[in-house]
Amino acid sequence: MATIFSRIVAGEIPCYKVAEDDKFFAFLDINPMVKGHTLVIPKQEVDYIFDLSDNDLAAMQVFAKKVALAIGKAFPCKKVGQAVLGLEVPHAHIHLIPMQSEADMLFSNPKLKLSPDEFTEIASKISAAM
């Protein structure tokens, strides 16, 4: 059974795609902490990020860096934070979150409720900054 993220990559479940290459995929978190909150995943279905090969883990970080730099251009912030939790979906993923303060990285914070138009606009802004 494919994970929800594999189904997103396959186009079976819609998403707000930000970036993609042959190995990795970036899309907006549908329960964002702040505008611009993006997930980066390997297309390869791996549950635990540290089960990726060293080369794939390094390549995922380089891909995430490109996305993070674009997020920072699209949503001016002090830094783009990175978090890896990995308990909520059994598919390795990196959260990229534009931060004004460390409080923006608290996953216990209430999530934003955005409209489809807002999500589309956010994804477009980040993609355009790539």
From TrEMBL:
Superkingdom: Bacteria
Organism: Candidatus Enterocola intestinipullorum
InterPro entries: Histidine_triad_HIT (IPR001310), HIT-like (IPR011146), HIT-like_sf (IPR036265)
MF (Gene Ontology): catalytic activity
Pfam families, A to Z: HIT
GO biological-process terms attached to the record: nucleotide metabolic process
Protein name as catalogued: HIT family protein
Catalytic-site annotation from UniProt: H93
Domain HIT: residue ranges: 4-107
Placement of sequence motif Histidine triad motif: 91-95
